[in-house]
Structures are given as C-alpha cells and as structure tokens.
Amino acid sequence: MNVNDKIKQVLKDKNLTPSYFADEIGVQRSSISHILSGRNRPSFDIIQKIIRRFPELGYDWILEEDQPLTNVNPRPVAIPAIPRKPSPQPEIVDEKPPYIAPPQSSVAKNKEEKTIERILVFYTDGTFREYSPS
Fold first, then answer.
1. Do residues 92 and 33 touch, judged by C-beta distance below 8 A?
2. Facing residues of 129 across strands?
3. In which element (H, E) is residue 128 found?
4. Which residue ranges are recorded for the region named Disordered (predicted)?
5. Is 1 within 8 Å of 62 (Cβ atoms)?
6. What confidence tens digit (pLDDT) does each residue in 41-95 have?
7. CB–CB of 131/118 below 8 Å?
8. Where along the chain do its domains lie?
9. Is 131 helix (H, G, I), strand (E, B) or coil?
C-alpha cells in the first residue's frame, strides 16, 4: 500500500470527505484531489500536516510501504488547527513626487508687502489663462 492509498484509507476509516480532510490539515483542496487521483504523491510537508492533525497514524505507518492501518480512531482528535502564515501585503508606494516649493524671485521683508500681481494657469493642451486682481 503506497502513501496515496493510505490517505484514501484514512478518509474511508474516519468517514471524511477529501475537502474536509484538506481543510483540517491546512492544505489546498486541489492538492488532496491530485494525491487521491494518483497524479501526485504527497510532499513531506503534507505528510507532516497529516501527522500533526492525526498523530495516532504515526510517521512509521504513513511512510512504510507495507504496514496495514490498525488502531485508527474513527473520530477526529481535538488538536488546534495549524496556523497559516499571513500572505505578504503589497508595499504601498506613494507615487506623488515630494512637494518642492517654487523658487522666489524676490524676498519681501515682511508679510504686508506681499500682494498678488497675477496668476497663470497652464493647461495640458499648451494653452494658458492669466488672472489679475482688479
């Protein structure tokens, strides 16, 4: 009996669906589907997750080719779920250039001397509009 067959046997003996089993051990459902169909063999990481969730199986039984399944408790054992690593969050980059104050052509000695002479607005089509206080 190979590892894939042993996983099938566990599902049968514990009366678990492949989806529930995948959720219980913390792997994608498609991974279990591929294992059960014979397309893939389980990775050591998946085997570790199975043993963490169902320690009564033991590494010896699941990794040995010819050991029969014995003394398997049909009820799930209450073991905390394996914590998943959070997916990395994308770094937020501020795409605005830093504000740079425009150069001043003349420096007023105090605030009362400053008055607006004119305002120019430039448009992306190359035109502009000038505003003057009246």
1. no
2. 121
3. strand 128-131
4. 80-111
5. no
6. 888 899 899 889 988 888 888 887 665 555 444 444 444 444 555 556 666 555 6
7. yes
8. 3-63
9. strand
